[in-house]
Design goal:
mainly alpha, 2 helices, about 95% helix, rod-shaped, transmembrane helix, transmembrane, Uncharacterised_SCO3924, membrane
Amino acid sequence: MAELWKSLPSWVRNIVVPIIVVVVAWKMLWIVLGVVSSLIGLVVNGLVLVGIAAAVIILVKKASKS
């Protein structure tokens, strides 16, 4: 691997490789943020669904008592 790195021209080592690394890191960051935000969205949707179900159950119980 060291021979391959040393065989590259200096402009590739100093310009092209860092640009590729930055682009890949940027894509990975957005993938991670997308996964985290979708998980947070699923949790929020679940909590809203549970809250609505609890409200319906409470209202049905109140209606059946009267």
